[in-house]
Design brief:
mainly alpha
Length: 341
């Protein structure tokens, strides 16, 4: 069990409440630091709004990320395990005894998570350079005030957690793609038992778009426009990968099952009396040519991706979140200009 899971498992609270408590604690520490250094009094005395002040805005957003990422990681772990348990009765061989279950820790998983966290730490200074565009700025004493120290300290924690979350999200997705090969049976007449694959895809994709939506609120600051422009497509690509990777394996199984069933139907239409053995309609005593033709049309229409209409609409809504965030940031900027210019 990773440290994040051990932390949440050791506290008798739902993850959301522990995350909220952590956010409030960090906010209290941030306000106390600003008050003790006189920056809070200076800020309140000015006409600058919270969202216009980079230090204040980043301080609040990083608190949301610092508390939200561990919470999301915990819910992702619980959701992946629940989806695995829902699939477990359908699995055969080693997959049914948890050896291929998501979050089954081994050397590869632990090393991969640590490496991803380290990559996140390494990317943090690059983001700072993309915003400030002046490396010499970080060598001046005037730059390293209390607000900047807070932003960089909490930012590194966020970057480490973000790297681990991305790894865990994609590793869970890979795990579910692998599990599809261990499905004992696949009934084309009822794909509902395969819905945990789709749920896992949606579960993995949602945090990617939520976090990029929150980060995109920084687009109100000209210094962040380039960072948002680069990070948004990368995050949406990550969300799409997290959505599709868990169902890639089961899609291949569905496609193979369709091809095999269509082969049986074609053989039956040619007069092979044994062709339907093993088919989903093998138990029917009499199957006419009209029945076979209708059944062939049904099999051809079976969707290969295990996403029903509500799941597709839900992901479309997910993708709309960053757009709404960008529009909201632009609208907020307009409001501030109108009321405080």
């Amino acid at each position: 069990m990773l440290w994040n899971d051990r932390l949440f498992a050791s506290v008798p609270l739902a993850p959301v409440w522990l995350g909220l408590a952590l956010a409030l604690l960090l906010l209290g520490l941030f306000l106390a630091l600003m008050w003790l250094t006189g920056l809070l009094t200076e800020f309140l005395a000015s006409d600058t709004q919270v969202w216009e002040n980079r230090d204040a805005r980043l301080g609040v957003l990083l608190i949301l990320f610092a508390a939200g990422l561990p919470t999301v990681r915990r819910y992702a772990a619980l959701g992946a395990r629940a989806n695995y348990e829902a699939l477990r009765p359908l699995l055969g061989g080693e997959a049914s005894d948890s050896r291929l279950a998501p979050r089954a820790l081994d050397t590869r998983t632990v090393r991969g998570a640590r490496t991803a966290g380290a990559i996140g730490l390494a990317i943090m200074p690059l983001i700072g350079l993309m915003v400030d565009r002046d490396p010499a700025l970080y060598t001046t004493r005037e730059y390293w005030g209390p607000a900047q120290m807070w932003v960089w300290s909490i930012g590194l924690i966020v970057a480490w957690n973000a790297g681990r979350f991305m790894y865990e999200s994609l590793d869970d997705a890979r795990c579910f793609s692998t599990l599809a090969a261990h499905l004992r049976d696949l009934n084309l007449l009822n794909l509902e038992p395969l819905s945990p694959f789709a749920r896992q895809g949606l579960l993995s994709a949602l945090p990617w778009v939520i976090f990029v939506s929150i980060f995109a609120l920084n687009a109100i600051d000209q210094g962040f426009v380039w960072v948002v422009t680069v990070s948004a497509p990368l995050s949406l690509a990550g969300a799409t990968t997290a959505l599709l990777l868990p169902v890639r394996g089961v899609r291949e199984r569905i496609r193979a099952a369709k091809h095999e069933e269509l082969r049986r139907i074609a053989a039956a239409l040619r007069g092979d009396a044994e062709a339907l053995r093993g088919s989903a309609i093998a138990k029917r005593k009499e199957v006419s040519v009209a029945d076979l033709l209708a059944y062939r049309s049904f099999v051809e229409s079976v969707r290969e991706w295990p996403f029903d209409t509500p799941a597709r609409l839900r992901f479309a809504f997910y993708l709309a979140l960053p757009i709404g965030s960008w529009l909201g940031g632009a609208l907020m900027e307009r409001v501030l200009v109108v009321f405080w210019d």
